[in-house]
Amino acid sequence: MQRSDKLCGLDKIELPLPRERIVRKKMRNTIDEKSIAIEKLKAFIKQKKMRQTAERILILSKIYDYNTFFDVQTLHEQINKEMRVSLATIYNTLELLQECRLIIRHNFSSQNVKYEKLPTGASTYYKICTNCDKVKAFSDGKLTKSIALRNTSAFSIVHHTLYLYGICKKCREKMERKKR
To answer: Is the pTM of this model over 0.70?
Structure first.
């Protein structure tokens, strides 16, 4: 996200875009991402010879408003502010969206099931605390490169997800304080 300036022979120096243009571009990308997802869902529904309903479009639209994980209950509360939609419809639509590859379901633990928009990057990594169920997404360039080297002619990696289970710093500190 840089621009080139040709003032006083500075045409080879890259200058950052003004902050407001970057913010507007991010907003536009979010809107574009949501529009593309809706069109993909409409095409998928048509291909499956299913009905296109306002509820399905609203659910997808709400999901694309989230910038992080969400659970079914939170989504249900948000949707019901605009339209009465049953929990069964939400679960069925989430299954449809998974099949359409627009969202991903994470079973971080037996009681901690979260969803998120399918990440646009080729890899996603998560640290999950087994004590407090806190989930933190992270990236690791070395790990991504190492996995990319595993591509062979027999198998080509499209994307991957890695879950690391352990105990977060806060929980470790609490446990150490209790021992004292």
So the answer is: no
